[in-house]
Amino acid sequence: MFRKIFTYTLILLLLVMENSMWVGHPEIILMSKISIDTGRVITDAPKQLFRDDMPNALQHERQLQDNRVFGAYEQPPTFPGGTKALFSFIRANLKMPAKGKKAGISGRVFVAFTVEDTGEIKYINIVKGLGFGCDQEAVRLINSMPNWRPGTISGKPVRVRFNLPISFIFED
């Protein structure tokens, strides 16, 4: 008898947890009746307690889709003026750090960042660095860039993760 009641209580708890996670709001519980005699779920019960100020599951799903960052796209994000303008911007604004000059460092810093659907650059991080102040200079350079043209999927602007190698060359 105890085992049967425990089993039905566990099933009810799992149903409530699964249904509340599906909606995306743990405080909303989907209501279902469980027959104590047979253990079957009775589906003619009211399905959801609604509050007017809460988004429904479809709105929540759309919001999640809007916040996705893409790696595959139809049109990649582009610097204003294209690739040649990007290289000119880097050449004009990149400064070799004093520590790097003193150590005679040369190499590439690989920087990853997100180009938002508005073209704004966010979430900059170093994938592979050189040290000696070169990593900080690469981040400073990316932060100083103007807004890009965002990448697109089906003609709509989307957030895209972008990787950019920046070369540091030691010159006497």
Features:
172 residues; TonB_C; two-stranded antiparallel sheet; TonB-dependent_transducer; 23% strand; cell inner membrane; elongated; 2 domains; transport; five-stranded mixed beta sheet; TolA/TonB C-terminal domain; alpha+beta
Characterization of this structure:
By secondary structure, the chain is an alpha+beta fold. It folds into two domains: 65 residues, no CATH class; 100 residues, TolA/TonB C-terminal domain (2-Layer Sandwich), CATH 3.30.2420. The chain has five helices and seven strands. Strands 3, 4, 5, 6 and 7 form a five-stranded mixed sheet that branches. Strand 4 and strand 5 form a beta hairpin. The radius of gyration is 27 Å and the shape is elongated. The N and C termini lie far apart (87 Å). About 32% of the residues have low confidence. InterPro entries: TonB-dependent_transducer (IPR051045), TonB/TolA_C (IPR006260), TonB_C (IPR037682). Belongs to the TonB family.
